[in-house]
Amino acid sequence: MKSIVKKVCYTLAGVLAVIPTTTFASISSLDLGDYTLTGSYALPTGTASEASAVTWNWTTDTLFVLGDEGDALVEVSKTGTQLSSMTLTGFKDTEGLTYIGGSQFVLTEERLRSAYLLNFMAGTSVDRGSLSFANLGDTVENIGIEGISYDPQDGSFITVKEKMPQEVNKNTITFGGSSVVTSLFTPNLGLLDLSDVQVLSTVTSAGSADEDNLLILSQESSKLFEVSRTGAILSQLNLGALGLPGSTEGVTIDRAGIVYLVAEEGINEGPTLYTLSPTPVPLPGALVLLGSGLAGLAGVDRRRKNS
Predict the structure, then answer these.
(1) Do 227 and 238 form a contact (C-beta atoms < 8 A)?
(2) 47 pLDDT band (50/70/90 cuts)?
(3) What is the pLDDT of residues 195-217, one digit of tens each?
(4) Does the N-terminal peptide bond of residue 165 adopt cis geometry, omega within 30 degrees of 0?
């Protein structure tokens, strides 16, 4: 488990969050060993059937959920309440979803191993055939692309292939054109499958320790890993020990460091949203540290004025 200092940072971030700001704060690092289950919420069953992918929209601070039936893209609150939706037609096996900014999302078809660029417009409908796309590999059986995540550092995408073989790839995509797919690392994580991936550069501060790292989810092993871009395991969490079902397939994270997971079946045997949060240090101790830090800054300021 990483240093207690990280827990202090999370707690102080929560305290400072009450101060009005026009931009999202960013986490500097995380340790999955510090995380616990803090919420479970039923998702709308009609439009988020068989929820298999979730992504955090940093513009609206809401979540978007995609089912593997490819019937709709659904916007929900962080407690699973439906806010809006867009009907999808022509899709058969949607498993990957990521937000890239400006109301735009990229979703993937597992077997076709294709990525599609979609502009979300609530209350409307879009057919797969009308979208710009790019092929990320040859068509395979039900062991293809399970997850995709946008990397704002260079505009590329990280994808995971489920198994036979497992793959973690970097994709430079030109929608409506070609794509360049290269192996990021050969997975040797001891996982039965790879179900989703989340790039941490979307939520970490520039130059931070975890900026280049990834979250990788395994449905069949019921585990969540933080790994480096060379495949080194940095921290991990046993989801089964937290009571999460074996159908947990999608993962995302926001800039508060909250991890969101979606499962095909959970509460009332329907699609479910789960939240995982880092365990904070006791608040009084954190406030003491905050007060000491502020006092130190004030002392520095006084010395500057007196010098």
Answers:
(1) no
(2) low
(3) 999 999 999 988 888 999 999 99
(4) yes
Domain membership flag for residue 75: yes
Helix residue ranges, H only, the chain: 4-16, 283-306
Q: For residue 17, what is the DSSP state? A: T
pLDDT in tens, 212-246: 999 999 999 999 999 999 999 999 999 999 999 99
- Contact yes or no for 43/65 (Cβ under 8 A): yes
Amino acid (1-letter code) at residue 295: A
Report helix, strand or coil for 248: strand
What is the domain-level CATH number for residue 17? 2.120.10
- Decide: helix, strand or coil at residue 237: strand
Residue 306 lies in a domain: no
Residue 82 belongs to some domain of the structure: yes
Give a yes or no: residue 304 inside a domain: no
Domain count, the chain: 1
Query: From residue 140, how far is each of 111, 136, 165, 196 by CA, in Å?
Result: 5, 11, 11, 18
Distance (Å, rounded) from C-alpha 142 to C-alpha 26? 36
- Find residue 91's DSSP bridge partners: none
Stated pTM of the model: 0.84
| The pLDDT of residue 84 is above 90 | yes
- DSSP-derived pairing of the beta strands 145-151 and 133-135: unpaired
169's CB contacts (< 8 A; 6+ apart) are 136, 158, 159, 160, 161, 181, 182, 183, 184
pLDDT of res. 194: 97
| pLDDT grade for 107, boundaries at 50, 70 and 90 | very high
> CA-CA distance, 248 to 190, in Å (whole number)?
18
For residue 73, give its domain range: 4-297
